[in-house]
Design goal:
Chain lengths: 125, 514
């Protein structure tokens, strides 16, 4: 558990809900893309939170092994490096997905001259 | 002598990645006609490699980068590639469909521009799928999932017409939501067990027992992978996305992508990693049932050939998920014989669906290639004009509707028997009913595409080129053979896959060889 109890987790879930809301309700392609970005950010924040640990004494430090911070000291004081490695990958993946989405939105704008989904809809279902 | 299969496993990902790099290079060097050859050679090599994995030990594990300190399961770090019975079945399905789809593309894609990029995306998608199937690591599954997904977004929007772009955008957004759910689930599992390795997670779950966080993770995974597998109510993107792609890609998407990145991972996680529970069984049965019914009812009213096929994909994957759900339920109750039959039926139907649905989509591609339309109203009389395509369409239609002696009949029969045996006679009746409606819907396809009079506009239509014909005929023969030769290959392909799933949390010992 973090130093602030449940609050950061609740905020993450709230951010997640905001993202889902934007995707589900908004009719503008750009706003939908922003919703996806918010969604991805909330998940990344959640993963970082999971890796955060408060040591028994002093503050948590970045997980970098130095001569002073080695072995047992590292285990006791550093935060968990694995989720940070994960979100680094997740951010890159998210970036490429968002880039692709923006390309699609621009191409759609070229076809229709609008970002409004209600005017774009050719497909049923 | 046993093959060093563990050393071959990374090649199944590396080779298509290399191919995906080489095809655009060939296109840049003005050697465009080599692109198709490179792609075909790559898929042929993959087919051979997948077949070679059968010669190895029952479970082969490759530890990437040699990060194995000791054989103690608790202290292993690094990424693993695991090849067990279920993996082999999926590898085989992916390789077979990929090979014939690429062969089909060689003729079909002549009408499109920038074919080098098309083959690059196809090979990237194959690399992603093979990675998902082989990966023994939760986060790696996520990464490869995204590799396959990003390639498929590109392929869905390949035609860059307005409908295709719209379908691709819709697919992208829904798929991004699925990825968020999956990543959230991975986070929960990591926090709970402190590891991402599937086998270690399975071991931790076994000592942990029932746990609330495990429920959350299972729910998140079922939502995420259910979306990727287009289970009702998460199905809205599939009928737009799959028909929009070029026909060989539709065959790949419907034939293997929703299985490899959706149902495969779902089955693996529910059976082998998070452990079978009564609730996950009920959830899978409900999802499967809803997909079966809704998919087929929406399919009946479609007049767009490829859209109709896409709705049937939802319905047929419903069968697979239903059978797996029955398997989970029976496994929890301790009715192991029922579980074995249900899981066997589900896996068999998954294989069959890959064969006949890719055949159907390739047939629709052949029809579109010849006539330029996929509207059932505007087609007719293709039985005379395109005899081979029509014959293959007939075979695939009978297979998917479950008419003996084709493969769909046997797998649906097994699923129905298992469902009734597990004590759900009403569900059993529904599986038969859905099969009947499927037959009805494909009677419509045959009536409007194959029979009837040839419209004046289509009087000049001729049979498709020979390479397309070869892939159609080969898949049609496999549809027939997969049913009739079941006793011959069952012991090598399907039984190990079923046993791997029903091994349950014993997965941890099979991976660590303990």
């Amino acid at each position: 558990m973090t130093a602030h109890g449940f609050l950061p987790y609740v905020l993450c879930v709230l951010l997640f809900a905001v993202g889902i809301y934007a995707i589900a309700v908004k009719k503008n392609l750009v706003k939908i893309i922003i919703g996806v970005v918010i969604l991805e950010t909330s998940v990344n924040a959640f993963l970082v939170l999971l890796g955060y640990r408060v040591p028994e004494s002093g503050d948590a430090v970045a997980p970098i092994i130095t001569p002073a911070l080695n072995g047992q000291a590292f285990l006791q004081r550093s935060v968990d490096p694995v989720p940070q490695a994960l979100i680094l990958t997740a951010i890159v993946i998210g970036l490429s997905v968002v880039a692709l989405m923006v390309v699609m939105a621009v191409r759609l704008y070229e076809k229709y001259g609008t970002f409004d989904l209600t005017k774009i809809r050719k497909l049923r279902g | 002598m046993e093959w060093p299969v563990a050393r071959l496993l990374p090649l199944l990902v590396i080779i298509p990645l290399a191919g995906a790099f080489l095809t655009p290079v060939a296109a840049l060097l003005k050697a465009g006609r080599f692109c198709a050859v490179i792609a075909l050679a790559t898929t042929a090599v993959l087919l051979a490699l997948s077949a070679a994995t059968f010669a190895g030990p029952p479970v082969a594990v490759a530890w990437i980068g040699g990060w194995v300190g000791t054989s103690d399961p608790g202290s292993v770090t690094g990424i693993a590639m695991v090849c067990d019975g279920f993996t082999r079945l999926m590898l085989m399905i992916v390789s077979v469909v990929a090979f014939f789809a690429t062969l089909f593309s060689m003729s079909y894609m002549r009408r499109y521009e920038r074919v080098g990029l098309y083959y690059a995306l196809i090979l990237l998608m194959i690399a992603g799928m093979n990675g998902v199937i082989l990966s023994g690591d939760l986060f790696n599954i996520y990464v490869f999932l995204e590799v396959a997904a990003v390639a498929s977004y590109g392929l869905v929007g390949y035609g860059v017409e307005s409908e295709e772009l719209e379908a691709s955008f819709k697919y992208l957004v829904l798929s991004a939501i699925a990825s968020a759910f999956i990543l959230l689930g991975i986070g929960v599992v990591y926090n709970l067990t402190g590891t991402l390795n599937l086998a270690q997670v399975a071991g931790a779950v076994r000592t942990l027992g029932e746990n609330n966080a495990l429920w959350v993770a299972t729910g998140l995974f079922i939502a995420g992978f259910g979306l990727k597998a287009a289970m009702v109510p998460f199905h809205a993107w599939l009928p737009d996305a799959h028909p929009s792609a070029p026909a060989p890609v539709s065959a790949m998407l419907s034939g293997v992508l929703i299985k490899a990145t959706g149902v495969y991972v779902l089955a693996r996680l529910v059976f082998n990693v998070l452990g079978a529970t009564g609730a996950s069984g009920t959830l899978l049965i409900t999802l499967g049932m809803a997909s079966m019914l809704v998919g087929v009812l929406l399919a009946v009213e479609q007049w767009d050939l490829k859209r109709l096929l896409a709705y049937h994909s939802i319905s047929q994957m419903g069968y697979v998920v239903l059978a797996l759900g029955i398997g989970v339920e029976a496994h929890v109750k301790g009715a192991y014989a029922v579980a074995a039959l249900a899981v066997f039926g589900g896996l068999f139907h998954m294989m069959n669906h890959a064969l006949f649905k890719s055949l159907l989509f390739l047939c629709s591609g052949s029809v579109v290639y010849g006539t330029g339309t996929r509207d059932l109203h505007k087609l007719g009389g293709m039985g005379v004009k395109m005899p081979l395509t029509s014959m293959c369409t007939r075979i695939a239609s009978l297979s998917i509707s479950g008419v003996p002696p084709f493969n769909g009949f046997f797998s649906k029969l097994i699923i129905t028997i298992a469902v009734v045996w597990a004590g759900h006679p009403i569900l059993g009746l529904l599986t038969v009913l859905v099969s009947f409606v499927t037959l009805l819907s494909f009677t419509k396809v045959q009536r409007y595409v194959i029979h009837g009079s040839v419209p004046k506009r289509l009087s000049e239509v001729r049979e498709s080129p020979v390479l397309m014909g070869i892939s159609l005929a080969a898949l049609a023969v496999m549809c027939l053979g997969a049913g009739l030769l079941l006793p011959v290959y069952k012991g090598t392909i399907l039984d190990p896959a079923r046993d791997a799933l029903l091994n349950g949390l014993g997965y941890v010992t099979s991976v660590f060889g303990g």
